[in-house]
Every structure is written in C-alpha cells, then in structure tokens.
Design a protein that fits this description.
Length: 387
C-alpha cells in the first residue's frame, strides 16, 4: 500500500521531495454505546482497515488535500493561515479542524503540506472514517513537525476539533480507540476519567463480522446532538435529588431510586440506557476476563435492545440486520455499533459459520430493505503508524 500511495501522490502533486506515508485505523465498539459523553465506560478496538495518507511538507503556507474516495472533488486548497470551517471544503474540514486544534493547544505548523489520502473504511458506515482521518492528521503533524505531544493527547485534540470546529458534539471514544489501538486487544476506557486498560480479546474460533446497512448518515444532521441534550437535561433534574456527576456514576439501583425526578418519560428512557449500558459494559469486560464468551454475547444482544427501545437510535435497517443475525447458527452476539441511524452492526460468529451467516443475513436484509448490505470480516489492529 505504501508504494501505491506514493504513486498516487505523484500523479496528483508531482514527484519531487520527501514523501512520507502514514496509516490510522478505523474502530468498532464491541459494547458501551452512547455512554462516552455520559461519563460511562466503553469497550472499542482498532481495526486493520482505516485511512492511509501520503504527505509532503511544503516551503510555503499552502495546504493541498486530495482523497481517492472523493476523486470528483479534486484538490482542495487552503492555508495554515486560513483555518476557517467552510462547508464547501467538505471532508477536508476534519483535517483542517485538527490542524486548528493543535494550534489552539500550542502546536502550530510552520509550513503547509500536500496530503493525499485513501480510506478503506466505507464513508458514513459508523466505523469512524472521520475520526480515523482526524487521528491520521494528528500523527502526520507530530511526525512532520516534531511536536512534543503523543497519541493520548491527539485523541483529546481530535475530539476538540470535532466538537468546536466541525460542530458534532461527540464523545472521546472514537478518537481514543483509534489513537490508542493495540493489536488483539480492546480498550476498556472510563470516559469520565480517561483511565484505561487493554483487555486481550481472545476469539479462538470466533470472528468479528461487520454488517454495513449502506444507509448513509451524517452525525451532524442526525439526532446525535439531540440525544446528548436529552441526557444532559435529565441529569440536571436528577442532580436535584441525588449526587451524580454523570450517568456513569450511577448503578441501576441508584438510578431507579432517583428516576422520578426526571419529568419527561422520553428523557427517562434515554437516561436509563446510559446507566444500564454502562453497567453492561463493565459486566461484559468481566465476562471476557473469565472467558465467558456466551455471557459477553448475551450482553451485546441486550445492548442492542436498549439502543432500540430506550435510546431509539437503531431504525429498520439496523434492526433487520441484527434480528437476522440473532437467528443464525453460530452467532454468539450481535448489536448495532456506532452512533446509529444507519451505519453498522457487529456480530461475533463462529468461524465455520461465517460464510453461511453472510449469505443468509444478506439475503434477509435485501428482501426486507430492498438493497444489499455489505459485510467485512475484520481483525483487531494497532493504532496509527508511519509506514
């Protein structure tokens, strides 16, 4: 892939100078959905699919961006002196946002650069193509300009860029999982404190299968920000009767004791999901630690039910994929993953049943929805790297 990226770069930007190639992964969250901005735990892992970039420093202040995934757009030109968020600059806003965020935190690039990228993550799938790009740019900035910071801080800067520059009120999970990824391990992250531990994911004879609904969605124009606002309002009400810094600070009993303070039945359901999903995530990691894969799968299934019924972020496409998965032999657990409103599912499937799983679930989905889903059998990979 390194040679292909350099070759593509030369076709677009010309061949002189030192061309360097970088990679940042995508991520999938095994359990712990919509908990990251609610002060709870998440359990994501980095994938071996992601985003590649070939980059060359310039001697001036110009930024030039090109993506193989958006060839029709061509080269989008900007400047490190003009880090303004303009909708017409499309996907490059995520890249510029990170350059801006680094500058805001005291790491200002002193020259521009040419940036040629290719993503192997389907755009809008819920596998964090945007966060992958953000962390890729962070890695590029650190290596190109020798900034004295690390990938832990890069996750924080990436979230800052998405919140303050792009305008999506996301939590830290996506950027953290990508920046801190470790092969064959998932990250058990307490989003309230950013304390984390790597947990080996030993899936002997079991594969992770991603199902992509192919229903496009964008976080900014989805109900993502609305859900966050609902949780925050409900928390402000419950804090009048109990001491809870976030939903992650409560267990099920503590929540039920104070629940009556929430005046909106809808907001009470949202809060219930945040609390119960956090506790499911903690239990799921414990189950994995004792190699109780069956219990892990049960908790995955329960997570989807809660996201469907209490948080209401699934929809017909995701529900169809998950419910079809539940019916298949060899399936240990299946749920939606990511923000919802389209995007992807993640299933744990016994290796010998994977081909049948993809065929059968794909057929059921096409019959019910009217178009095809795509499937990816994925591996857990490392974080960002220079190739």
């Amino acid at each position: 892939m390194k040679e292909k990226m350099i070759e593509g770069f030369k076709k677009v930007f010309g061949g002189d100078g030192d061309i360097r190639v970088f990679f940042a992964p995508g991520r999938v969250n095994l359990i712990g959905e919509h908990t990251d901005y609610n002060g709870g735990h998440v359990f994501p892992c980095a994938l071996t699919i992601g985003t590649y970039a070939a980059v060359r420093k310039r001697n001036d202040r110009t930024l030039r961006f090109y993506s193989e995934n958006f060839e029709e757009v061509g080269v989008i030109e900007s400047s490190i002196d003009d880090l303004v968020n303009r909708p017409e600059e499309q996907w490059t806003r995520y890249a510029k946002g990170v350059i801006w965020a680094f500058k805001e935190h005291g790491f200002a690039a002193d020259t521009g650069f040419d940036f040629y990228c290719k993503g192997t993550i389907p755009n809008g799938s819920g596998l964090s193509s945007s966060a992958s790009l953000e962390i890729l740019v962070a890695k590029v900035l650190i290596e190109l300009f020798g900034f004295d910071t690390d990938m832990f801080n890069s996750a924080i800067y990436g979230q800052y860029a998405e919140n303050k520059y792009v305008g999506v009120n996301c939590g830290i999970m996506d950027q953290f999982a990508i920046a801190m990824g470790k092969k064959d391990s998932a990250i058990f992250l307490d989003t309230a404190t950013l304390k984390y531990e790597y947990v080996p994911v030993k899936l002997d004879g079991i594969r992770l299968v991603i199902g992509n609904t192919n229903k496009k969605r964008g976080l900014g124009d989805s109900k993502y920000n609305e859900r966050r606002a609902e949780c925050e309002h409900a928390l402000s009400q419950i804090q009048t009767v109990c001491n809870a810094a976030s939903w992650g600070a409560l267990d099920e009993a503590g929540f039920e004791k104070c629940r009556s303070a929430i005046t909106s039945p809808v907001e009470a359901k949202r809060a219930k999901h945040a609390v119960y999903e956090n506790r499911r995530t903690i239990e799921a990691v414990e189950a994995l630690g004792r190699n109780d894969i069956a219990r892990f799968g049960e908790l995955m299934n329960a997570s989807h039910v809660s996201l469907r019924d209490d948080y209401e972020v699934t929809g017909k496409e995701l529900d169809t994929l998950v419910e079809a998965a539940w019916e298949q032999p060899g399936v240990i657990g299946a749920r939606m993953t990511g923000a919802g409103f389209g995007g992807c599912t993640v299933s744990m499937v016994r290796a010998e049943k994977v081909d049948d799983f993809i065929k059968n679930v794909g057929r059921i989905y096409a019959e019910k929805i009217g178009y095809d889903a795509d499937f990816y059998v994925v591996d857990i990979g490392d974080g960002p790297v220079e190739l």
